[in-house]
Amino acid sequence: MSFFGLGGGNNGGASPQAVSSAQIEAATAELDMITDVFNRLVSSCHAKCISTRYAEPDLNKGESVCIDRCVSKFFSVNAKVGEHMQQMGQAAQGGGAPAAGAGSFF
Description:
By secondary structure, this protein is an all-alpha fold. It has a domain at 21-93: Mitochondrial import inner membrane translocase subunit tim13 like domains (Helix Hairpins). Helices cover 58% and strands 0% of the residues. The protein has 2 helices and no strands. The chain has helices spanning 21-49, 61-93. α1 (21-49) crosses α2 (61-93). The longest helix has 33 residues, at 61-93. The radius of gyration is 20 Å and the shape is flat. The protein starts with 20 loop residues before the first helix and ends in a 13-residue tail after the last helix.
């Protein structure tokens, strides 16, 4: 797989494309955002679903079900907030209705 068009494929002897600093900044910002979402997900669902008293090395059935539901709800809310934010942005710019399914981080 190519990252910014570099490596990962046969480029026929041509030199790799130059990576602009804007592309690097965009990739870094996206990585930071996804890392933040992951950390908030882990923090939130761990606090809600896993007891602070670790009696077993593995999750029990109740904890596993709770984690599954928590993650599902987290991403559902994340998608809804993303859609709402996109609608607000388009309304502020005077745009029309948003495209269906747009606005989710994942």
